[in-house]
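Researcher: Here's a chain I'd like modeled. Treat it as a single chain, no partners, no ligands.
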Amino acid sequence: MRGQTAYFEDFAVGDTLELGSVTVSEDEIIEFARAYDPQPFHIDPNAAAHSIFGGLIASGWHTCALTMRLMVDGLLSKAASLGSPGVDQIRWQRPVRPGDTLTARATVLEVRPSQSKPDRGSMRIRTEVTNQEGETVMWMESIGIMGRRPAT
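Model: Modeled as a single isolated chain. Structure tokens:
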């Protein structure tokens, strides 16, 4: 996909796409949580230390937002993306902690040309996010709509 737009036809079932990595800081965890998910184990290190998590953790929604950024930078900004009708499943497998480096990888599960709109097709993708230890912290399955290659 380097230097050119990836279209629907460029993806096949089984393709694996490396989306990149990001390290999350304590300040980022607290800032996100204060704005969007202000539970004590996300915003207060002292309260978090006494929670079932034993320390501060990122909101699952923060993990989703970080993953979305990796998806845009690693795939969607280089593709004929037309958006998404949604996410079918999200699972948070283990907590994300300050200093964790998250790496995202997407695998194409299904490709389907549109029956009613010949200029596009849909892809079902499973995105897995791991930490620096290789442990899965989150996975999700979603659908993306991609434009088809224009006729030349």
